[in-house]
Design brief:
This protein is of the alpha/beta class and 365 residues long. It is 42% helix and 15% strand. α3 packs parallel to α15. The structure holds 1,3-dihydroxyacetonephosphate (13P) and iron/sulfur cluster.
Length: 365
């Protein structure tokens, strides 16, 4: 019996609709006046400490554009009793200047279970905002642009999972968090890139359905004796990296360190000195302080680590996630002024999805 079995549709299936958003949050919390967004000496003085954090990666000439938004967003967060949870792929001015908490998907989900504020503004993609809502059904969860999707989340539907269960009766379903609430609701447990092997092995099964990232599934299959039934989903950002380009970088500098995200193809991971989630990659650079490193992942993350560790040189084979990049300071400000765009999940779906997410969050490290 092969250890790896790949299921799923052919590529280019039409995208699933993004779930609708509602305006109940605006009715509940009210709309605020749009703050003035002028750049002047007072704004410069009040935001100077924030610019310090990003001065190595954001040119001084750009700060007068960002600073009025940063000041207005931080003031409105206090007025609204709101927190901003931001993913490691957010741009430096968001990650360093307005976020209250930053991290990988698992850290953001764990943080979402502890939020005391009334409002969560999720600076990341839609599935991350849904995870926060699943864990906080009574709080208002906003995403600055609900079109911030994910090619993995688009790759599978709840109906697909039901068909897989029919095809493989009794086999447990482990679902990457990069999925819709509908898919999570059909799952036994969720996982992220930082705990995927641990989650698979926690089930004590000899076979699991692991969806929807084919490459993450292959990475897990290479590290466990559990037989993996995978799905043909791919991250549109990580699948573009090639082993050839990494070999080319290494030929130019044999001391170069290569660290990669497990959503990359297997031949890319074979070139890497370390593979891990975005948070594990950041920790690796913090601890090892390499002279030169290439982070084989979305490119804003190198900017964020560069801001913290100016002595490390980052080689940047830049692949942007177009979905993450939909989140901008002006849209975050709009979120807090107009209380949009609210994440709404059917209560029945959210309840079933919560079981799968909480089962993961509650696993011991
Ligand atoms: P992490 O959980 O490693 O942050 O990954 C999320 C993601 O979308 C990577 O593309
Ligand atoms: Fe999805 Fe890939 Fe973007 Fe991550 S980088 S949000 S997996 S499309």
């Amino acid at each position: 019996m092969p250890l790896f079995d790949l299921q799923g549709p052919e590529r280019n299936r039409p995208a699933a609709a993004v779930p609708p958003t509602g305006s109940a949050a605006a009715r509940k919390h009210g709309i605020k006046p749009m703050p003035a967004l002028a750049w002047n000496a007072r704004v410069a003085a009040e935001t100077a400490h924030l610019y310090e954090r990003i001065k190595t990666v954001v040119p001084a000439v750009e700060w007068p554009v960002f600073a009025p938004y940063v000041k207005a967003i931080n003031a409105l967060k206090r007025e609204r009793n709101a927190v901003i949870l931001a993913h490691n792929y957010q741009t430096p001015e968001i990650y360093n200047c307005v976020a209250d908490f930053v991290g990988d998907s698992l850290q953001l989900a764990r943080e979402a279970t502890k939020v005391k504020a009334d409002v969560i503004v999720q600076c990341g993609v839609h599935f991350m905002a849904e995870t926060s809502k699943i864990l906080n059904p009574d709080k208002t969860v906003l995403i600055p642009d609900s079109r911030a999707g994910c090619s993995l989340a688009q790759a599978i539907t709840g109906a697909d999972v039901r068909l897989l269960r029919q095809r493989f009766p009794g086999v447990p379903v482990v679902t990457y968090v990069n999925t819709s609430a509908d898919v999570k609701a059909e799952s036994d447990i969720c996982c992220t890139s930082s705990n995927a092997v641990q989650v698979v092995e926690s089930l004590g099964a000899d076979k699991v359905i692991f969806i929807p990232d084919e490459y993450l599934a292959r990475y897990v299959a290479a590290q466990t004796k559990v037989r993996i039934i995978a799905w043909k989903g791919r991250c549109e950002v990580h699948e573009r990296f090639t082993a050839d380009e990494l070999r080319m970088y290494r030929e130019g500098d044999p001391g170069l360190q290569i660290i990669a995200h497990p959503e990359c193809p297997p031949d890319v991971l074979a070139e890497a000195d370390f593979t891990g989630s975005t948070a594990h990659m950041i920790d690796w650079v913090r601890n090892k302080r390499p002279r030169r490193v290439v982070m084989v992942t979305e490119c804003s993350m190198a900017d964020n680590v560069q801001a913290e560790l100016p002595e490390v040189e980052f080689v940047r084979p830049c692949n942007l996630c177009p979905h993450m990049k939909r989140i901008t300071l002006p849209k975050i400000l709009d979120s807090l002024v107009y209380m949009k765009e609210e994440v709404v999940i059917d209560a029945g779906v959210a309840g079933k999805a919560r079981r799968a997410v909480e089962r993961m969050v509650n696993l011991k490290n």
